[in-house]
Amino acid sequence: MLGDELLSTIFSDDTHGNAEKIYQSGVLFKELQIPQQKMTLSDQSTFLKYDVTGAYTQSEFNVQNGLPKVRALNQKDYRKTQRYYAKQGEITPEIEYAAIRENVPLQQVIDKVTLGHAIIPANKHHQELEPMIIGRDFLVKVNANIGNSPTSSSLQEELEKLWWALRYGADTVMDLSTGKHISAIREQILRHSPVPIGTVPVYQALEKVDGNLGELNWQIMRDVLIEQAEQGVDYFTIHAGVLREFISSASERLTGIVSRGGAIMANWCLQHKQQNFLYTHFQEICDILQYYDVTISLGDGLRPGSIKDANDEAQFAELKVLGELTQIAWKKDVQVMIEGPGHIPLHKLAENIERQQTYCHGAPFYTLGPLVTDIAPGYDHITSCIGAAIMGQLGTSVLCYVTPKEHLGLPNKEDVKQGLIAYKIAAHAADVAKGHPGAQAWDDALSSARFDFRWEDQFNLSLDPATARSYHDETLPQPNAKHAPFCAMCGPKFCSMRASHAIKSSLALSNDECT
Amino acid sequence: MLGDELLSTIFSDDTHGNAEKIYQSGVLFKELQIPQQKMTLSDQSTFLKYDVTGAYTQSEFNVQNGLPKVRALNQKDYRKTQRYYAKQGEITPEIEYAAIRENVPLQQVIDKVTLGHAIIPANKHHQELEPMIIGRDFLVKVNANIGNSPTSSSLQEELEKLWWALRYGADTVMDLSTGKHISAIREQILRHSPVPIGTVPVYQALEKVDGNLGELNWQIMRDVLIEQAEQGVDYFTIHAGVLREFISSASERLTGIVSRGGAIMANWCLQHKQQNFLYTHFQEICDILQYYDVTISLGDGLRPGSIKDANDEAQFAELKVLGELTQIAWKKDVQVMIEGPGHIPLHKLAENIERQQTYCHGAPFYTLGPLVTDIAPGYDHITSCIGAAIMGQLGTSVLCYVTPKEHLGLPNKEDVKQGLIAYKIAAHAADVAKGHPGAQAWDDALSSARFDFRWEDQFNLSLDPATARSYHDETLPQPNAKHAPFCAMCGPKFCSMRASHAIKSSLALSNDECT
């Protein structure tokens, strides 16, 4: 199914600078192999980076069969979630993996998962998964959306997007396919993904009834949930908070209901003159999720679609319901995160996380951007990463990326890259602001390389080494320019960093004179 | 000097959607022609936008002779600045122009300029200028840096960068040339610029002595200031706050002194064992500025060059000196703004504007970014526009753009465009957050077009219509797709906005049933 030529192009360039893949073993579970990227700089110092690239950066393997299955499947485990084990104080391989990966004490992981303030999305059937943790006390994570649409894309294109997403640092990936072959695409994405995969199951349910809302019902949805859980999907977005009574106020907005799942459920309620079946069957949904340990991502079906509609009655009414549903899910030990907007101007951002943390009892927040202005279609990775950085600083746990194509078309793999780079910037800026241990060391290592004119180190340490190198080489491609104490921005005479070295020398000299 | 073929390429594409240039006349000064862009949308509503593009979007003229001289030169005016007139309560053409352009009362302009909380940079010799106002109570402005370096660029390239800067909305432009023919390039930039032009005169002074700091002195600098003021430069960056006693602490930093002007002055102090001559001759500098009404932009020569060095002793020691110099300049009626950093993590941003407003008595703040992380060379327009948006919201008046080439090479015109778009996003997001009258109307007009599937309106209203259109057309190029109630992102069945219209119809129907 996959062309052989693909294998050779995966991660074959210098995306990760001169990083070398290393593994740390578990202590309790010695078979665990927790990956990191280790960079050796030209001054012989080393620098370690969190790694999400899976076996793709390890060694060659037959990509057609999918990734190696690194997690064991224990049949007796069904119905016992990571939250269940954490509450018992029982350490699972996933808990140890996540703790070592984040470089935090085991007890911190256990405590936060028990409280529901953190989650470890890990469907028992996703055996290719390298576990990770999501919560405000951990590194801010980035989610990348991929998936086809009825007008565009194929299985091969979607796998390429997955690879590009991993390459540029996606911590989780959602397959939002709504086009052809969505079960087959999802199967391949799961078998090829070392990171948690999320979906919005109602898309497939609607496809099953050919888009005919009149035929959509709980039984169809239930079958889809089980099919996808069996495949290994790690988290489901479920729009159970779009209550029938909220629709009228949401429909008065400038941009109505812009969540696809939200709009589907609202239309369903109106057509059937019934309450949202995801709400009325919420206990049964949780039973399915608990069985496989699928995390629920409570969808914000009524999020604003324009800054004009931000923080309105419908948005916060739904958020309160999500808080109630959180407690129901927790009673069944289902892990929960809460989705958030969307389009929010700068001065209304803080209220979102404050209300979410209060209404939803500290469950992790997962926001889409938010975009802080609506005037720049084509650049919404930028309009939204401004909001994302601030939300991350304020405590949002996962930032769902937005690509340059948002509002205009289906993202291709270059869009995936651009979206991810903008969001890795936002997440890291938030980690630094939150004082996450070790976060700023990356900035400092790069700044030090910059100040010392170690150009190759500067490129290799950057989020996108190939681009940094090519921008530099555009005007100074000569090999000796890689050791030159200046670049084309200022040239040699006006380079302030070069002048700064002269200042240091002068001061050292004048100190010598004094002695 | 300029190729004829250039004329036809200036603003000949659809950069400004289907906007039409309109003019408002002055009330007191009837000869004033204050420009705006007027867009007529497909629903026949109209939308007005601030316009910085000068005569280039008006009608054809011989670009080789420069722009028409729209300001009169009054010989009796020398030594009388906009601040002087405002203090007298005397309305100048520049004051009226700025008030109408911002759509604010004349008295607000007079009051803020009198207090020093706003400036109207307008050298009497820059007769091509279309006056504008800078201050926290007005629209947040964006500055674009252009200029050659000893390793790159020519006069023609720099003029093209100026045009691209105007095209994408630069409110002010700095010519930071340090390479060949810097006087000739500056002359052409001034004659072709409808926006205020700033420079860092010490660059030319250093060029005059062939980079030999031993020969640099006040007399040489004085000649440069007069030459540039005669040409019409509207604001000078002067690094008068880099005092000899601050150098030692700044040189201990991770990245030393990263301001070019700051590093020059620090090295000069060390070499001459004297106090910074820009500080000791500050009164004489102000006399020259007052004569032509050149605004002083007090340079932050000790700004941090990495987030590690942010908000340190050297940075704030210099800022206090800038506050003292502000009061000296104000006594001579010289208009003042204060430059700010640079590289600041999210959690240290607010302290910068708080200290600046206190130390510098409310003078407008003009920050470079700031970058909120150092890990993304090649994407520093993004790392910095996050900081810029927040600083704008908190009260910064001008955001100096950063291009993708920052730290790597001299920006070309595509970099100028990318930097400007990121910064127009930041400035507008700040205007919306500050509740600037009319700012959000732009977002709302675009969102309304989006919700109604008026694709052409959506493209035309966006910051970069050509890019928005091309992203849409990548997958749906057919003419009828411009009226389709969906795009390639979700396709017809999953378009939430289309579903939202169905919801509205259902609700309208069921309301009808009740009556």
Automatic annotation (TrEMBL), chains A, B:
<dbReference type="GO" id="GO:0005829">
    <property type="term" value="C:cytosol"/>
</dbReference>
<comment type="pathway">
    <text>Cofactor biosynthesis; thiamine diphosphate biosynthesis.</text>
</comment>
<keyword id="KW-0949">S-adenosyl-L-methionine</keyword>
<feature type="binding site">
    <location>
        <begin position="259"/>
        <end position="261"/>
    </location>
    <ligand>
        <name>substrate</name>
    </ligand>
</feature>
<feature type="binding site">
    <location>
        <position position="407"/>
    </location>
    <ligand>
        <name>Zn(2+)</name>
    </ligand>
</feature>
<feature type="binding site">
    <location>
        <begin position="300"/>
        <end position="303"/>
    </location>
    <ligand>
        <name>substrate</name>
    </ligand>
</feature>
<keyword id="KW-0862">Zinc</keyword>
<comment type="similarity">
    <text>Belongs to the ThiC family.</text>
</comment>
<dbReference type="InterPro" id="IPR038521">
    <property type="entry name" value="ThiC/Bza_core_dom"/>
</dbReference>
<dbReference type="GO" id="GO:0009228">
    <property type="term" value="P:thiamine biosynthetic process"/>
</dbReference>
<dbReference type="InterPro" id="IPR037509">
    <property type="entry name" value="ThiC"/>
</dbReference>
<keyword id="KW-0004">4Fe-4S</keyword>
<keyword id="KW-0456">Lyase</keyword>
<keyword id="KW-0784">Thiamine biosynthesis</keyword>
<feature type="binding site">
    <location>
        <position position="495"/>
    </location>
    <ligand>
        <name>[4Fe-4S] cluster</name>
    </ligand>
</feature>
<feature type="binding site">
    <location>
        <position position="339"/>
    </location>
    <ligand>
        <name>substrate</name>
    </ligand>
</feature>
<dbReference type="Pfam" id="PF01964">
    <property type="entry name" value="ThiC_Rad_SAM"/>
</dbReference>
<feature type="binding site">
    <location>
        <position position="145"/>
    </location>
    <ligand>
        <name>substrate</name>
    </ligand>
</feature>
<feature type="binding site">
    <location>
        <position position="239"/>
    </location>
    <ligand>
        <name>substrate</name>
    </ligand>
</feature>
<feature type="binding site">
    <location>
        <position position="203"/>
    </location>
    <ligand>
        <name>substrate</name>
    </ligand>
</feature>
<comment type="subunit">
    <text>Homodimer.</text>
</comment>
<feature type="binding site">
    <location>
        <position position="174"/>
    </location>
    <ligand>
        <name>substrate</name>
    </ligand>
</feature>
<feature type="binding site">
    <location>
        <position position="343"/>
    </location>
    <ligand>
        <name>Zn(2+)</name>
    </ligand>
</feature>
<feature type="binding site">
    <location>
        <position position="490"/>
    </location>
    <ligand>
        <name>[4Fe-4S] cluster</name>
    </ligand>
</feature>
<dbReference type="GO" id="GO:0009229">
    <property type="term" value="P:thiamine diphosphate biosynthetic process"/>
</dbReference>
<feature type="binding site">
    <location>
        <position position="487"/>
    </location>
    <ligand>
        <name>[4Fe-4S] cluster</name>
    </ligand>
</feature>
<comment type="function">
    <text>Catalyzes the synthesis of the hydroxymethylpyrimidine phosphate (HMP-P) moiety of thiamine from aminoimidazole ribotide (AIR) in a radical S-adenosyl-L-methionine (SAM)-dependent reaction.</text>
</comment>
<feature type="binding site">
    <location>
        <position position="366"/>
    </location>
    <ligand>
        <name>substrate</name>
    </ligand>
</feature>
<dbReference type="GO" id="GO:0008270">
    <property type="term" value="F:zinc ion binding"/>
</dbReference>
<keyword id="KW-0411">Iron-sulfur</keyword>
<keyword id="KW-0408">Iron</keyword>
<keyword id="KW-0479">Metal-binding</keyword>
<dbReference type="GO" id="GO:0070284">
    <property type="term" value="F:phosphomethylpyrimidine synthase activity"/>
</dbReference>
<dbReference type="InterPro" id="IPR002817">
    <property type="entry name" value="ThiC/BzaA/B"/>
</dbReference>
<dbReference type="GO" id="GO:0051539">
    <property type="term" value="F:4 iron, 4 sulfur cluster binding"/>
</dbReference>
<protein>
    <recommendedName>
        <fullName>Phosphomethylpyrimidine synthase</fullName>
        <ecNumber>4.1.99.17</ecNumber>
    </recommendedName>
</protein>
